[in-house]
Design brief:
The structure is a single chain. It is built from 11 helices and 11 strands. It is α+β, with helices and mostly antiparallel strands. The protein has 2 domains: 138 residues, no CATH class; 97 residues, 3-Layer(aba) Sandwich (Endonuclease, Chain A). A hairpin with a 4-residue loop joins strand 9 and strand 10. Helix 4 packs across helix 6 and helix 6 runs antiparallel to helix 7. The termini are far apart.
Length: 265
């Protein structure tokens, strides 16, 4: 029955035992699914292809698949691995694939240190980074070396330091202490103006400063809300400055210069 349908063009062979129905003009998701099916039970899309499926990296030509089996199939890069832990596998768009965390770990083994760190930053920027899950995936796959993996651990450690940095009130205290040290006038704090609460305001100079602690500004909703507040304040004639945790704690001269210039102006 299969042979007859192949001969009549109703089935088109993609891999051994894997066929397209009617035509082979597949989207990339179709090619990825076909490769995973061809690799057999327990296989999962991985590495560059999994990153593209998750939307954290551009797709490459070949399809990457992780499997415990010895498989050879055209156009597919097979990555032999021990049985994938259930926590390292998920399903996206109907395709069995490694999780974002496991994908980052796998890519760290084949990318340069710089590219690995850049990929983690981009994943974080997109709101797709789960730091505890990534740490757990690293522990489950311990023993694999390489500069990329070390870079991934270093970048993850930096991310966790930021995530556990000062609370909002502590950061505001640091900011006020910075102003005092630079002999700058103190603002009204947690002040409501134009219908929104701001961290620091100098009403006479129409200046607002927001200090953005990571814990309160680390998702898309917070990002959008911050920009909407800035638009409201700017339309009402306020100048809005935003300083990060790193600005206040590591670049105090930069902060003081900007505030002094605008207060003087």
């Amino acid at each position: 029955m299969i042979q007859r349908r192949v001969e009549t063009g109703h089935l088109l062979r993609l891999h051994r035992g894997v066929y397209a129905v009617g035509h082979a003009q597949l989207r990339r998701e179709g090619r990825w699914l076909a490769a995973v099916l061809a690799a057999g039970p327990g296989a999962a899309l991985s590495h560059r292809s999994a990153a593209a499926l998750h939307g954290i990296r551009e797709s490459s030509g070949a399809v990457d698949v992780a499997t415990t089996r010895r498989v050879v199939t055209g156009g597919v890069v097979i990555h032999r691995t021990t049985a994938l832990d259930a926590q390292d596998v998920t399903t996206r768009h109907g395709i069995r694939t490694t999780t974002v965390a496991r994908t980052l770990v796998d890519l760290a083994a084949i990318l340069t240190a710089d590219k690995t760190a850049k990929l983690l930053r981009e994943t974080d920027r997109m709101g797709r980074l789960d730091a505890p899950a990534l740490h757990a995936a690293l522990e489950r796959t311990s023993g694999r070396g390489g500069d990329g993996r070390r870079a991934l651990r270093a970048a993850l450690a930096q991310h966790q330091r930021l995530a556990t940095s000062l609370t909002l009130s502590e950061l505001e205290d640091r900011f006020l202490a910075l102003l005092d040290a630079e002999n700058l006038s103190r603002p009204l704090t947690n002040h409501r103006t134009e219908g929104v609460r701001v961290d620091a305001a100098w009403p006479r100079e129409r200046l607002v400063v927001e200090v953005d602690g990571w814990a309160f500004h680390n998702d898309r909703a917070a990002f959008q809300a911050d920009r909407a507040r800035d638009v409201t304040l700017t339309r009402a004639g306020w100048t809005v400055l935003r300083f990060t945790y790193a600005d206040v704690t590591q670049r105090p001269a930069h902060v003081a210069t900007a505030v002094r210039e605008l207060l003087t102006r």
